[in-house]
Amino acid sequence: MTATVPLDTHLATLRALVEQSLTRVLDRLAPPSAIADPLRYALLGPGKRLRPCLTLTTAETVGQRHGLSAADARALALPAACAVEMIHTYSLVHDDLPAMDDDALRRGRPTTHIVHGEGLAILAGDGLLTDAFTVLASAPSPAVDAGAPVAPADRRLHAVRVLADAAGSRGMVGGQAIDLAAVGRAGTATLDAAALTDMHARKTGALIRAASTLGAIIVGGTAAEIDAIDQYATDLGLAFQIVDDILDVEGSAADLGKTAGKDAAAGKPTFPALYGLETSRRMAADCLARATSVLDRAGLGGPLQDIAAWSLTRRA
Length: 316
Ligand code: GRG
Hints:
Blueprint: H1 7-29, H2 33-43, H3 50-65, H4 70-95, E1 105-106, E2 109-110, H5 112-116, H6 118-137, H7 153-167, H8 172-182, H9 193-218, H10 223-250, H11 253-256, H12 262-265, H13 271-275, H14 277-298, H15 303-313
Antiparallel strand pairs: 1-2
The structure holds geranylgeranyl diphosphate (GRG).
Geranylgeranyl diphosphate binds at residues 47-48, 50, 88, 91-92, 94-95, 100, 107, 172-173, 176, 203-204, 241, 244.
């Protein structure tokens, strides 16, 4: 494992691996040219790749305890990492549509529907969501080169179930529906603190948890290891969202690569709106402390702890 490597270097290595693999997926799936360009535009845009980096880092961290080399753990988890990023990208493409958050800027560039039109943006999102499961379930997966190690079928099936549940109506889709109601675009809902936390646990948190636990599942982690990673990721996901809300208040579009100040303009319930900036910062720090302590207790410290610390200080 790369425990002694600085976090920036560790993440840069994993990002390069993921981006190479995402390109391979699109090349291998070879969709018709009518949809290939919007897919490529959405998926290969300059994202942080936090979620697939979590999958790979968890796989390395847990895999090491089961005698796996970092290279083998990464190769085993790469299909899951790509599937997670494909689902995350679909959610961003659909979230930016006029019927949802209606945004023109994402990852520092015009959103997919601005460049390719609404119809193709909807289809690109649908394609990414569906193809993610081809990538995760296939053996060999289009995400890896021939000869790469393949996770046993029972682990892949477990991963499919966890990822589908996180992306589905109990998870991200449910959270997005609550969000639409909260801004008056689909019924009305007033969110108190508990409801706000529940919405984010579904909308953002569920996929971050799945991204993390998938790495542990794919390398054959024990139930206790998977549970520790799940607890860590629950707090990481909440911290990530609180920081996202803070950055929406304090950040600039140039740093964020997306429109800043949108939450307040839309009258959205956010952590700073409910608690103020200072308390929101303290809440994010509390999440980090809990995430760190669960890793310590489980003996899973190292780069996962560094990623949690980074999520608190990120500027984009
Ligand atoms: C359309 C079903 C459906 C769901 C959309 C994730 C989501 C649900 C909407 C995105 C809205 C948003 C900005 C949420 C805040 C947290 C978040 C997911 C930020 C974007 O993730 P990053 O910062 O993005 O990891 P990059 O571009 O770096 O991948």
